[in-house]
Amino acid sequence: MTQTVLEIAELQLHFFTDRGVVKAVDGVSLEVGRGEVVGLVGESGCGKSVTSLAIMGLIPQPPGEVVAGSIQFEGVDLTKISQKELRKIRGDQVAMIFQEPMTSLNPLFTVGNQLMEVVRIHRKVSKSEARKQALKMLQQVGISREGILDDYPHQLSGGMRQRVMIAMAMMLNPKLLIADEPTTALDVTIQAQILDLMKNLNKEFGTSILFITHDLGVVAEMCDRIVVMYAGQVVEQTDRFRLFRNPKHPYTQGLMNSIPKIEDKRERLYSIPGQVPNPHQMPKGCRFAPRCEYVMDICRVNSPDLLAVEEGHLSRCFLHQEVKEVAATST
Amino acid sequence: MSAHIQPVPFTKPEPPISPEKEIVESPFRDFVRAFLRHRSAVIGSVIVLSFLLIAILAPFITSYEYTARSQALLQAPSVDHWFGTDEMGRDLFTRVIYGTRISLWVGLFAISGSIIVGSLLGLIAGFYGGWRDTMISRIFDILLAFPSILLAIAIVAMLGRSLSNALLAIAIINIPTFGRLMRSRVLSVKSEDYILAARAMGMKNRRILFHHILPNCWTPIMVQGTLGFATAVIEAAALGFLGLGAQPPEPEWGTMLADARQYIQLAPWTMIFPGVAVALTVLGFNLLGDGLRDIFDPRMKQ
């Protein structure tokens, strides 16, 4: 983790809608180191997908706009450069795979066609060379069947298509792979295969992965470091061991408790009470306050900052800060 | 908890899961099979194909010239003149046969023109949105505000009466149909995941537009084009009938109907045969178009 590939700093992304401004991403900072797998976790609508699209420069504009902050990729601020420069980076240096393998491939073209297209957009290579590369990459993702290049997407199963998508994303050996819930739409057995595959690619090619998911099980399997988002903000950030052993933020604790445990005798599953706040009307103070078990008076008035609870473990909650202050005053 | 579980009634065992490697037909084979199974599509295509053959083989089907006059005026159908003769003694069968050429030409060119211009405008409106969309959509609205045949009459009146102007007028009045269809199709294809994926791969707008969006928009245009062909044939005949389209002695069906009007009681065959020709052509294209629509509609697939 000596070098960072991606560094998002205080990113503010707003959607200007008829009903007012939606702060979809509100001051998000995160880093992805070289060869690192970082998990971005949160409920639907918390801004994790928007963050990933912002990295790619794929937020429709208007209504979306990066209001403040920066996205540094290899020392280049992606929010400042032109569409043309961005296009050169997309697919080549930063690639993305999506949630729905069933609809992410163009139904009218063969797999080979689409894989070769990616190469030929970014590199000046002959068709036969591109074909060779495509075949090689398909073998890397575990498809060695002859003739796959001439298959149409509808002839493949969901798992196969996701492999093809991954091959497509990895074609040009990108430095960063953004995976937006790549296994959500797949069967559990296929899920495990795809996760294994991504882990292998990460090791073999040294590709950094930003893994977006709401599945904590997947996170535990995959990620070195985890960023938990809630309502457009980062609420907790640490490595996976600390997150699972010792979650600090009440929201993360709630997420952990929502996972059923086999030794549990409870008959009902735990769920965090309440709902994600309406993005048009964010609660004053801490955004999680209305749903928090440990809510204090201050939480309803002031918004806590994201502070280090200990070395390498950030949390956005007054709870720890107060504890610390109390501890500091007592000694 | 387990004490409360009711014994599950015995049900039929699930059928074995189908093997992973399905045998999938090629999309084209699929289409051909569905087409052949669809009765009206087959009937329609038979009618359309026979008219096409008639148009191509016209000089071999009849031995008369379509302008050749004879002494036999307004004769009833006979062995010499299968459909009889008109008021100038011309062989009606020959004229109807050659009329096929005109109608198919008009339909083909007018509809191709509408499709090309309409699709392009619809593509731009749907893909870029914003002021381009507003401008193009309003133009379509204006064109659609007039009854189409009235607009065609106005255009021909402005440009002068001739077959080529009629063709142009028919092309213009059909533009908004294709334009709107294309626009709506582009709007839905644009939001597909594979378009987002294409963007994420770093493709240029133009490449996405012509290589990824356009090919996915063709099906409804093709269906509408077939149906529009029928409309164009009717519109050409209507303009001809009003004396605004093909000019005599061109053997255009509408013009022939107009000429025959005076003799409807004396020699009804002069009206019946061109009329039947128009009706049959339109029927053929409509059946074919309806069939194609059913076949391409994903909801109709079993």
UniProtKB/TrEMBL annotation, chain A:
Instruction: Give the GO terms filed under biological process for this record.
Output: peptide transport
Q: Which domain of life is it from?
A: Bacteria
GO MF term set? ATP binding; ATP hydrolysis activity
Which InterPro entries does the record match to this protein? AAA+_ATPase (IPR003593), ABC_Ni/Peptide_Import (IPR050388), ABC_transporter-like_ATP-bd (IPR003439), ABC_transporter-like_CS (IPR017871), Oligopep_ABC_C (IPR013563), P-loop_NTPase (IPR027417)
Q: Keyword set for this entry? A: ATP-binding, Cell membrane, Membrane, Nucleotide-binding, Transport
Q: What is its main location?
A: membrane
* Any one annotated GO CC term: plasma membrane
Q: Which family does it belong to?
A: Belongs to the ABC transporter superfamily.
- Sorted alphabetically, which NCBIfam families does this protein's record hold? oligo_HPY
Q: What name does the UniProt record give this protein?
A: Peptide/nickel transport system ATP-binding protein
Q: Could you tell me which species this protein originates from?
A: Baia soyae
From TrEMBL, chain B:
Q: Where does the protein end up?
A: Cell membrane
The record, for PROSITE patterns, names:
ABC_TM1 (PS50928)
Q: Which UniProt keywords apply?
A: Cell membrane, Membrane, Transmembrane, Transmembrane helix, Transport
Concerning InterPro entries, the annotation shows: BP-dependent_transpt_permease, MetI-like, MetI-like_sf, OppC_N
Q: What is its main location?
A: membrane
Residue span, ABC transmembrane type-1 domain: 100-289
Q: Does the keyword Glycoprotein apply?
A: no
Query: What name does this protein carry?
Result: Peptide/nickel transport system permease protein
In its UniProt entry, the species of origin is given as Baia soyae
